[in-house]
UniProtKB/TrEMBL annotation:
<comment type="subunit">
    <text>The accessory proteins ExbB and ExbD seem to form a complex with TonB.</text>
</comment>
<feature type="domain" description="MotA/TolQ/ExbB proton channel">
    <location>
        <begin position="121"/>
        <end position="228"/>
    </location>
</feature>
<keyword id="KW-0472">Membrane</keyword>
<feature type="transmembrane region" description="Helical">
    <location>
        <begin position="35"/>
        <end position="56"/>
    </location>
</feature>
<feature type="transmembrane region" description="Helical">
    <location>
        <begin position="149"/>
        <end position="176"/>
    </location>
</feature>
<comment type="function">
    <text>Involved in the TonB-dependent energy-dependent transport of various receptor-bound substrates. Protects ExbD from proteolytic degradation and functionally stabilizes TonB.</text>
</comment>
<dbReference type="GO" id="GO:0017038">
    <property type="term" value="P:protein import"/>
</dbReference>
<dbReference type="GO" id="GO:0005886">
    <property type="term" value="C:plasma membrane"/>
</dbReference>
<protein>
    <recommendedName>
        <fullName>Biopolymer transport protein ExbB</fullName>
    </recommendedName>
</protein>
<keyword id="KW-0813">Transport</keyword>
<comment type="similarity">
    <text>Belongs to the exbB/tolQ family.</text>
</comment>
<keyword id="KW-0997">Cell inner membrane</keyword>
<feature type="transmembrane region" description="Helical">
    <location>
        <begin position="196"/>
        <end position="217"/>
    </location>
</feature>
<dbReference type="InterPro" id="IPR002898">
    <property type="entry name" value="MotA_ExbB_proton_chnl"/>
</dbReference>
<keyword id="KW-1003">Cell membrane</keyword>
<dbReference type="InterPro" id="IPR050790">
    <property type="entry name" value="ExbB/TolQ_transport"/>
</dbReference>
<keyword id="KW-1133">Transmembrane helix</keyword>
Length: 252
């Protein structure tokens, strides 16, 4: 009799464990959602979709920019005729930032030349006028690089807390069910609590890619902004004096 009881105990424990595992899955979690659970889950889903959208968009944009940047800048300076260089910049895609900066500088220099003797030319000299146009162009292109970074930063910082809210709410309901049933065994607790913890995992899955991508894009933008500044300084010297810094000394 004792042997039969001892043999039945492991079997009962195994059955309880199997039942607990059946209640510890994503499908069972979805079925048990209330209004708050659905709100948290949908919020995390939207966050994840938005973050991956901007990750892909910014990755493609940055790879294209990196592939074209050196060629565009080098071709501009290597073209002996200024008009041919400007024409080359006009042929670049609208999304290419270096060509847009160069064209803004060229347009500012040309506009100032046409206003020679006017009140504009008396108020701002050529160097100041070109410098103002370049500052505006660099600021505009720098802002364009930051598209989607606010979304990535928001998802990376808030998604874990949204998932934690879902976990706390799920554990709260799980404890209520356990208390009403009067069954406080580990098999009864593991399933509901494990389901609630899935919400924390979903929050982390949404936050980690967004945070890593945000840091990577910020670093890339810092490098690109330095390239913008260097190119803008060279453009200012070229359109204000007719030559880049170092060229005049090299010709002596």
């Amino acid at each position: 009799m004792l042997q039969e009881t001892a043999a039945a105990a492991p079997a009962a424990a195994g059955g309880n464990n199997a039942a607990a595992l059946q209640q510890m899955g994503f499908d069972h979690l979805i079925q048990g959602f209330d209004a708050v659970g659905w709100a948290v889950f949908l919020t995390l889903s939207i966050m994840s979709v938005m973050s991956w959208y901007w990750i892909i968009i910014n990755f493609i944009k940055n790879m294209r920019l990196r592939a074209r940047a050196d060629r565009v800048v080098d071709t501009f300076w290597e073209t002996p005729n200024a008009q041919d260089a400007i024409r080359f910049m006009e042929e670049q895609p609208k999304s290419e930032p270096f060509s847009k900066i160069a064209l803004d500088a060229a347009q500012a220099a040309a506009h100032h030349s046409r206003q020679d003797g006017s009140r504009l030319a008396e108020t701002l000299n050529r160097s100041e006028f070109v410098d103002r146009a370049l500052r505006q162009a660099v600021t505009r292109e720098s802002l364009n690089l930051e598209d989607g970074l606010t979304v990535l930063a928001t998802v990376g910082s808030s998604a874990p807390f949204v998932g934690l809210l879902g976990t706390v709410w799920g554990i709260y309901h799980a404890l209520i069910k356990i208390g009403s049933s009067g069954d406080a065994s580990i098999s009864a607790v593991a399933g509901p609590v494990g389901e609630a913890l899935i919400m924390t995992a979903i929050g982390l899955f949404a936050a980690i890619p967004a945070l890593l991508a945000y840091n990577a894009f910020v670093r890339f933008n810092r490098v690109t902004n330095n390239q913008f500044d260097t190119f803008a300084h060279d453009l200012h010297d070229f359109f204000a004096t007719g030559s880049r810094v170092g060229e005049a000394a090299g010709k002596r």
